[in-house]
Amino acid sequence: MGENHVKKKLAIAALGGALVLSGLGINTAFNTAEAKSDHSERKVENVIFMIPDGYSAAYATNYRWYKGESTTMDSMLVGMSRTYSNNSEVTDSAAAGTAMATGTKTNNGMISTAPDGKQLKTIMEAAKEEGKATGLVATATITHATPAVFSSHVAARANEGDIAPQQIENADVLLGGGKQYFLPEAQGGKQKERNLLAEAKEKGFTYVEDRDQLMSAKGDKLIGLFANDAMAPELDREETNQPSLEEMTVKAIDTLEKDKDGFFLMVEGSQIDWAGHAHDAAWAMKDAAAFEKAVQKALDFAKKDGNTLVVVVGDHDTGGMSVGGYGVYDAKTEVLRDVTATGNYMASKLNADKSNLKEVVKTYTSLDLTDAEINKINAEKNTANAINDVISERALVGWTTPQHTGVDVPLYAFGPQSDEFRGLHNNTDIPNIMAEAMNVPFGEENKHQDAADRKH
Fold first, then answer.
1. Which of 434, 427, 428 is nearest to 409 (CA)?
2. What is the pLDDT of residue 456?
3. Which one in 282, 305, 315, 436 has a CA-CA gap of 20 to 30 Å to 336?
């Protein structure tokens, strides 16, 4: 484990209170209920690792104001995680995910592969070797960077067609988008000849492709691909027959818990990150709400089971979100509660000349655009992002970049041995702590890369 893990117990007293009331901006007006977590040192049978992609302390604070009360994650707060990659202070999801899956820093863009090209064993692969069931859930394509790092090894995250066949070998449950990466070109897919869905069925997978099929699915192995590409944002999901992140999480747990040896499940709230890239504050808050519902279901299971560790941490910050901004000492996150569609969806409803801009925005946000705001949106090439910027300014949610930033992110944990996550950690500590909690051999194969951690 990294140096930060060795020293963590010395930092508990100094860090705990500051994180809760200052670092994350938790206002004492919210009565944060204390989670009744079991901090014992007994062995963990199951791990549910939940990653809200792009979620930082600013997202946590804005979401609390948006919700109007304390959140499920507030009561689980135990520390912070450092996010830098091997070759940059600002990571991408591939490198951050690799760190959290393998305990090793790599370069941006690489999927569980070291900078020197060596494949890095993942915590999910280690759990599978010990006989545990394994699963991945995401609202992006299931072959996207974060789910990919737990289940595959490729030099570049864009190679989703090379990721998919590895996933049906390493996971017992796969739920998300990305059907095209499992089908041959002859059927409109991205595989040259292989039909991975047919291969999955031969391996005993039940295949589903909409919410109703998912709800009624049986069996010990399950693959659900609910969109050809990514799934719909939570704001737009009612326009589809796709399941929610909460529903996919429940089904994944129900399926995996049949294994008497326990399970490892990774759940990603993928599109919080995409909302941050687009500066779509309402999309970010709505997908944060969807993620919180999934976390609550994981906690409900963990409390009932007693042998399950739940860990929640973002992989990085996206967008440099702020609470307040635009020269005003205030925040109006409640404005976002009336937004019922993403900026992308609103832009798709505009006439070619944008003559219905004011009407469309009013319909989906309850906001009356000023002439200045209309001119601002019309002047931008990316209409959706321009709409998002106007809504963000109305809500006083600031942004500093359309990309990621390198700030530390909050770390949450619940269940047996959750105390082991207290303090400031490197993201590479996380899989090592989980492996130790499960008593799963892990990390020896990856030790040759530890120099990157020590250097920073």
1. 427
2. 52
3. 315
Query: Has 316 been labeled as part of a binding site?
Result: yes
Residue carrying the six token digits 């269940």: 415
pLDDT for res 38 = 52
Please choose, from the candidates 313, 294, 293, the residue with its C-alpha nearest in 3D space to the C-alpha of residue 79: 313
- CATH 3.50.50.60 correct for 3-320+409-455: no
Q: Report the pLDDT value the prediction gives residue 42, as an integer from 0 to 100.
A: 76
Tell me whether residue 39 is annotated as binding. no
Q: Was 315 annotated as part of a binding site? A: yes
pLDDT of residue 68: 97
d(CA 194, CA 183): 7
Q: What secondary structure letter does DSSP report for 338?
A: G
> Are the beta carbons of 8 and 432 closer than 8 angstroms?
no
* Axis crossing angle, helix 429-438 with helix 3-18, rounded to the nearest 10: 100
What pLDDT, on the 0 to 100 scale, is given for residue 443? 75
Separation of first and last alpha carbons in the chain: 14
Instruction: Mention every residue, 6+ apart, whose C-beta is less than 8 A from residue 276.
Output: 54, 59, 284, 317, 318, 319, 321, 399
Tell me which of 37, 85, 93, 152 is the catalytic residue: 93
93 catalytic residue (yes or no): yes
Domain borders along the chain are 3-320+409-455, 333-395
pLDDT, position 260: 96
Which residues of the chain are under the pLDDT cut of 70? 1-40, 445, 447-456
5 is in an annotated binding site: no
